[in-house]
Structures are given as structure tokens and as C-alpha cells.
């Protein structure tokens, strides 16, 4: 590598790291200051067959939350039923925890062009299998 290429590598590496530190799951920035009222309603993800309803009393109902995935990327187990939900701080952002039965599922809260999204990583995070839920009511 010539000296010009080395200089470019030394300059661009810190820039790339600083940009990636500002983005969260799926490249979306983590949401901050999310209030309960912004999450109340029904959230759906057609690509992963999931529906999640969050109510003001912190009760929840879910259909098809991906819980396990095999090595071929096929979902092998899903959670459905009634439960509870809560928001808590997670690093620089916030997280939505949904408990169905005795299993808690953490969802990330993100903003895509200002719109709030609820995101779930399914399986190995390195495989980038994401389930993105958007609010429908």
C-alpha cells in the first residue's frame, strides 16, 4: 500500500467508526425519550408474521414473535399469547421488554426518518435477521 492509501485509511477509519456508533440496529438511530403513549396500539411486521398489541395498562398480546431460529435461517419457535410490557433505558437509547408467559423478549426502539419503529433481532445478530414492527393503530 502506498503512502497516500495509508493516509486515507488513517483518516477514514475513525470517521467510519464514529458514524457506526451513532446508528443502532439495522442502521437506524436509537430512539430516545420514548413515552408509553407513543407505543400504545398495534404493531405489525408482515415480513416476519408478527403482531404485537400494547395497551395503556401495560398489558400486551402477541402473535408470532420469533423466538428461535435454526442455522438455515428458518424460525423454529414463536411466542404468542398475553403478557406485559415495559420501557427501560438501554445504553444511549431505550428498549421495550415484552413478557409472554415466562419469556421476556427485548425489542429495540429506533427512528426511521422520524418514525418510531420497534425492532427485534432474530437469531445470531451477525446474520442480520431483523423483524421491524410499525404501528398500525
From TrEMBL:
Keywords, A to Z, come to: Signal
- Signal peptide start and end residues: 1-21
PROSITE patterns assigned: PROKAR_LIPOPROTEIN (PS51257)
Q: Which named protein is this?
A: Lipoprotein
Taxonomy of origin reads:
Bacteria, Bacillati, Actinomycetota, Actinomycetes, Kitasatosporales
Amino acid at each position: 500500500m502506498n503512502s497516500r492509501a495509508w493516509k486515507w485509511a488513517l483518516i477514514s477509519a475513525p470517521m467510519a467508526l464514529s458514524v457506526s456508533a451513532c446508528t443502532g440496529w439495522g442502521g437506524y438511530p436509537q430512539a430516545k425519550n420514548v413515552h408509553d403513549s407513543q407505543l400504545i396500539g398495534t404493531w405489525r411486521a408482515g415480513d416476519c408474521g408478527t403482531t404485537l398489541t400494547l395497551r395503556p395498562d401495560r398489558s400486551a398480546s402477541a402473535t408470532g414473535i420469533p423466538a428461535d431460529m435454526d442455522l438455515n435461517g428458518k424460525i423454529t419457535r414463536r411466542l404468542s399469547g398475553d403478557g406485559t410490557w415495559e420501557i427501560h433505558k438501554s445504553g444511549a437509547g431505550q428498549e421495550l421488554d415484552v413478557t409472554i408467559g415466562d419469556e421476556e423478549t427485548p425489542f429495540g426502539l429506533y427512528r426511521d426518518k422520524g418514525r418510531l419503529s420497534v425492532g427485534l433481532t432474530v437469531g445470531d445478530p451477525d446474520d442480520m435477521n431483523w423483524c421491524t414492527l410499525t404501528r398500525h393503530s
